[in-house]
């Protein structure tokens, strides 16, 4: 902010100085033109008298010129010697002023300069700001006196330029006061506006510092309009996403810890029973060992599913695409799960209206179909049915898996694809589920550019619908 004010102030100062000098140049030019026109007229009239050395004629010319031009007029011969002075003070003196020398020696017809009466110093027209009220400056204006194409003398006009310089000084002072006033107003306005502009940034910085300490629930106040408002809205949106991700992570860690801890605790109890009861009945011992083996399988499944999700989340998972038939994958899944369904007196029926030929990762889509059908088998009561259909809709293959189970409560529908989420947690563990199957389904479907959704009319089972593009590859 200080640098900004410095640049603005410096620019204004340069502009003010340039303006004063430009006006000074203009006033000088007007003065020079006026003096030059008058001198040239009197130089023509004085030429014949000077050539004939007519003293009375010279005296009359010089007095009339001084009265008309409003200054001291001197007539010099070609050697720079004063022949007549309207003030009668420099008669017979030889003058070496630069304005005289330039006409007599350099061949200039006219010349002009401003001198200090005290020191004889010549004022620089490019540095008029050096003038002070205590200075007394006069202008020396010269014109050549020509007779028969020869310079025979010089007429010199000495006049005060104090009034003109005073005008420039007044302008200079006014510009300084104006500059000071504008600078002060700019500083005050800048402080006010900078406060308005930087306050949202300061608030955002404070919120960022709070977030860096772990408080992801803080938000910035949305105010103003334009870019600042959009920035605040975008920042709050990002904060909400970070907070949601953090809560999801914490929930995931908690659920994963619980899921891993439960089989470990079960195995610990069983193994301790085997250790501290060496005379345990062989049948009971075998049962305990089988239970331990099942819990180990459960741990292995959880770890495998977690690794699958980690790879999917890393965004580095690559699809090993190949030409495949989704209908064949569905048939294979039915063949694998039929034994389990038959044990529960369930029926898996297929309605394949299309072959579902596509260029996709067959292994991942096998897991998608298997997880959906297996999930339906688990949550369908004995004697129920599971229906799997496949049809082509436009450029998509639409897979539908429905069952005759109890369905999913309305409040649970938004969470079914969350990791470790179970509608019926107790029954989920009893059937051996990890709570990760549907999350894997969603990840793999998204990787293929598709979508998955669930509908569950109350008390009428669940319907999972997967849409996969046929032309992606």
Tell me what the structure shows.
The structure is a single chain. With 473 residues, this protein is of the alpha+beta class. It has three domains: 2-184, Beta-Lactamase, CATH 3.30.450; 227-312, Orthogonal Bundle (Helix Hairpins), CATH 1.10.287; 318-469, Heat Shock Protein 90 (2-Layer Sandwich), CATH 3.30.565.10. The chain contains ten helices and twelve strands. The chain has helices at 2-51, 55-69, 98-104, 162-212, 227-276, 282-313, 326-343, 362-378, 425-430, 437-447, and strands spanning 72-77, 82-85, 110-116, 137-147, 150-160, 321-325, 347-352, 357-361, 385-393, 396-403, 451-455, 463-469. The strands form three sheets. A five-stranded antiparallel sheet has the order 2-1-5-4-3, with helices on both faces. A hairpin with a 2-residue loop joins strand 9 and strand 10. Mean pLDDT is 81; it is low at 425-432.
Summing up helix and strand content along with how strands pair, one would put the structural category as alpha+beta
Helix content: 40-55%
CATH superfamily of the largest domain: PAS domain
Strand order of the largest sheet: 2-1-5-4-3
Gyration radius, in Å: 52 Å
**Percent in strands:** 15-25%
**Order of helical and strand elements:** HHEEHEEEHHHEHEEHEEHHEE
Principal-axes shape call = rod-shaped
**Would you count the extended β strands for me?**
12
Number of H/I helices: 10
């Amino acid at each position: 902010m200080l640098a900004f004010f410095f640049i603005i102030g410096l620019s204004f100062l340069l502009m003010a100085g340039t303006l004063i000098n430009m006006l000074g140049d203009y006033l000088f030019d007007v003065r020079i033109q006026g003096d030059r026109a008058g001198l040239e007229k009197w130089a023509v009239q004085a030429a014949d008298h000077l050539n004939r050395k007519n003293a009375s004629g010279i005296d009359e010319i010089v007095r009339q010129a001084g009265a008309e031009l409003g200054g001291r007029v001197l007539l010099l011969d070609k050697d720079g010697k004063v022949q007549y002075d309207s003030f009668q003070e420099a008669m017979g003196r030889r003058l070496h002023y630069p304005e005289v020398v330039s006409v007599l020696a350099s061949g200039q017809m006219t010349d002009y300069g401003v001198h200090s009466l005290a020191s004889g110093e010549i004022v620089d027209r490019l540095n008029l700001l050096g003038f002070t009220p205590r200075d007394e400056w006069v202008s020396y204006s010269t014109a050549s006196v020509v007779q028969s194409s020869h310079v025979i003398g010089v007429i010199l006009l000495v006049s005060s330029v104090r009034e003109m310089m005073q005008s420039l000084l007044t302008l200079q002072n006014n510009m300084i006061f104006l500059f000071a006033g504008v600078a002060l107003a700019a500083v005050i306005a800048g402080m006010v506006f900078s406060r308005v502009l930087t306050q949202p940034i300061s608030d955002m910085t404070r919120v960022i510092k709070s977030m860096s300490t772990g408080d992801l629930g803080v938000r910035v106040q949305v105010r103003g309009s334009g870019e600042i408002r959009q920035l605040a809205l975008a920042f709050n949106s990002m904060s909400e996403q970070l907070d949601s991700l953090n809560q999801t992570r914490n929930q995931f860690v908690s659920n994963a810890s619980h899921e891993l801890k439960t089989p470990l605790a079960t195995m610990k109890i069983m193994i301790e029973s085997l250790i501290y009861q060496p005379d345990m009945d062989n049948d009971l011992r075998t049962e305990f060992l089988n239970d331990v083996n099942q819990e180990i399988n459960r741990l292995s499944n959880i770890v495998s599913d977690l690794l699958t999700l980690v790879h999917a989340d890393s965004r580095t998972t690559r699809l090993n695409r190949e030409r495949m038939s989704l209908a064949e994958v569905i048939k294979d899944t039915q063949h694998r799960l039929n034994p389990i369904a038959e044990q529960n007196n369930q029926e898996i029926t297929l309605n394949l209206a299309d072959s579902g030929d596509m260029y996709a990762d067959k292994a991942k889509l096998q897991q998608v179909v298997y997880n959906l059908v297996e999930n339906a088998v688990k949550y369908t009561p004995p004697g129920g049915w599971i229906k799997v259909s496949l049809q082509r809709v436009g450029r998509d293959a639409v897979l539908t898996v429905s069952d005759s189970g109890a369905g999913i409560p309305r409040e649970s529908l938004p969470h079914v694809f969350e990791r470790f989420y179970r509608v019926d947690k107790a029954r989920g563990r009893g059937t051996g589920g990890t709570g990760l199957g549907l999350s894997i389904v969603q990840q793999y479907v998204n990787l293929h550019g598709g979508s998955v959704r669930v509908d569950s009319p109350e008390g009428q089972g669940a319907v999972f619908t997967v849409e996969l593009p046929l032309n992606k590859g």
